Task: structure prediction
Amino acid sequence: MNYHIKNGRVIDPANGIDAVQDLFIADGKIAALGMAPDGFSADQTIDASGLVVAPGLVDLSARLREPGYEYKATLESEMQAAMQGGVTTLVCPPDTDPVLDEPGLVEMLKHRARILDQANVHPLGALTMGLKGQALTEMAELTEAGCIGFSQAEVPVLDTTVLLRAMQYAKTFGYTVWLRPQDAHIGRGGVAHSGPLASRLGLSGVPVMSETIALHTIFELMRATGARVHLCRMSSAAGLALVASAKKEGLNVTCDVGVHHLHMTDADIGFFDPNARFNPPLRSQRDRDAIRAALLDGTVDAVCSDHTPVDEDEKLLPFAEATPGATGLELLLALTLKWAQDQDRGGNSPDALAQALAKVTSEPARIAGLPAGTLSVGAAADVVLFDPDAGWKVERKALASQGKHTPFLGFELAGQVRTTLVRGRVAFQR
Result:
């Protein structure tokens, strides 16, 4: 169908657009902005008065739990959650069961996603077979099957020589290595940020040096190989200072943060709330403030939902035994807008809304090398219409995801998705 979306505030960070104007969609693609193209005839007109019209969100870390963990979530439920959250492009880590280390598994996941015809799904292939950190996967075959990069998910590589070989291979063929910086030994078994709060609660800690030591190793290997690395879910002020230095040096590195770490600290564990258990753990207020500042100055390239649906039984356990993770797809937009509102209120950034949207649209698309996150003429019509001022309460019944666990349950958030279009088709309408 052809759509005429009128009277909306069109924000397209990729093209520097922020103005009230009309958007025209034809044959699943963006046909024009402002004036209708010659011969255009709309099958449906959508009045977007009072709404923001933006590119569909691009999420760099969303676990859809298929294959292998369907009792935690299914592709159907998480796709619906993505649509409800305005997320039209998803990057999936390889820690499924079995691990995404064979082309057939990747093709099966892509096929299942195509059948559902909702969000665009882009898997990351395993960097090593079974994520065991020993033998490299067949990266070329996995790329042909549809992988856009290679990751160890939450499993650090014990043998640095293996990581060196992986980076050399990736550099040779132009692949991106996605790593979460964590030392394999320091902080192993830890469940909370090392600090006074963890000590008082009697919880084993994960020190910041677990992140910084891993970063030093990664940067040395990057200097030796010239590989391109994306750092997943940075969590500390010290780590971000190292990233800023590496970028200044000219290393080919990008990084993201989980949206929960943008707002919460280790104090939000409260009385052992398992919903506040994450990998990496929620850190100190100083670290949280550094993440917010690094997002503003460009050290942090993107914000991801770190969407990790967890089974009910795995959260109804003592904090140290509960499975880390929380639902995030439906909260990504609202929590990113909350950061923008805080910046706007503090006078730090007059164009905070456009800057925030860039961190969940054009910037993650650039990192992943995907033709997404833009309203350029000719681009696929992945579009979200949302009311930035509409409030909604985070409740279990309001979440489409099969994972109902989030530390934001009961919170009132602003920013509600009204319509999501994927490839020029209305996939969700509130």
The mean pLDDT is 96.
